[in-house]
Amino acid sequence: MVENGNVKSVSVSSAEGPRTTRGTGPRPFLKWAGGKSQAFQELRQFFPNLKDGQTYFEPFLGGGAVYFGLSPKSAVLSDLNKSLVFTYQAVKDHVEGLIAALGRLPPPASEKDYYTARTRFNRLAARLSTLDSSQIVTFSALFIWLNHLCYNGLYRVNKKGGFNVPYGFYRNPTIYSADSLRVASEALRSARVMASDYESALEGAGRGDLAYLDPPYDPVSETAKFTSYTSSGFDLTQQERLSRVVHELVDRGCKVVLSNSPSDRIKELYRGYRFERVAVPRAINCVGSRRSAVEELVVIA
């Protein structure tokens, strides 16, 4: 246990994707860098129970492991990544069509198949706001398919917003589970899912509500930088802005749990709040034996 600088560390794992199991409950249908599927069992102790009428907010949705693990009755889920949000909306509203579209894509595919699909995906992404419902389903199926075949399940874009992660060279990858998608769809029906900046998404959070914030982490070294989930990135200025939003949420009576790196800058930004640390294996290496554990900071406010 850590309060105001006194730290207790616990070890967890951070793999995320359809192979993760927690009984028959909802679970992530995407692989996601920094995902919290395995870490959730350790993280859940830091989340207070929500009462009727209270809402859960998660504005850096990613793979959604914490949302699916908590399964709150009311939620606002958001992400600045429009491709990700459109895919969640397709799972929520068009799951049977999505499953059918996934079934029409090549089974565990060649490198050529992958890059052909990636080009098709980026063409649809370039006019995402104009797609009809059938095209959205096709786009979302491609998102899920590429996610499970790309290198380490990364989502990275170039300056023009094009998805540019290379082929992952997996043996017998699991692309999707129809049953898991249906369970996720049912869970998402109690949530509002939107593409939004985190500050806008949190505007409605108030007394008794709960916000979980899992932003791109403050790098502990220059080589640790990875902020290109969207073309805008997430730098120190954004970390400072986020800390101001957290302080405002606390002033409004909203409960906050935040994950980040244990950098000196992050500890200073959240000085005065309760700190916990968890040790999580790195997921960004295709060789499992090279995935050394890293320490993450949990801020509870």
The gist of it:
By secondary structure, this protein is α/β, with parallel strands linked by helices. The protein has helices spanning 40-43, 65-70, 82-93, 95-104, 111-125, 133-149, 178-188, 198-201, 236-251, 264-269; strands at 9-11, 56-58, 75-79, 191-195, 210-213, 255-260, 274-281, 293-300. It contains 10 helices and 8 strands.
Please tag this protein with its features.
single chain, 301 residues, alpha/beta, Rossmann fold, 8 strands, 34% helix, globular, disordered N terminus
Describe the protein's architecture and organization:
The chain is α/β, with parallel strands linked by helices. The chain has a single domain, classed as Rossmann fold, CATH 3.40.50.150. The protein is built from 10 helices and 8 strands. It has an 8-stranded mixed sheet, with helices on both faces. Helix 3 crosses helix 7. The two termini are 14 Å apart.
Draw up the topology in text.
Elements: E1 9-11, H1 40-43, E2 56-58, H2 65-70, E3 75-79, H3 82-93, H4 95-104, H5 111-125, H6 133-149, H7 178-188, E4 191-195, H8 198-201, E5 210-213, H9 236-251, E6 255-260, H10 264-269, E7 274-281, E8 293-300
Parallel strand pairs: 1-7, 2-3, 2-5, 3-4, 5-6
Antiparallel strand pairs: 6-8, 7-8
Helix pairs in contact: 3-6, 3-7, 4-6, 5-6
Q: Report the CATH architecture.
A: 3-Layer(aba) Sandwich
Strands, count? 8
Q: What is CATH's topology name?
A: Rossmann fold
Side-by-side strand order of the widest sheet: 1-7-8-6-5-2-3-4
CATH class: Alpha Beta
Biggest sheet record: 8 strands, mixed
Tell me the strand percentage band: 5-15%
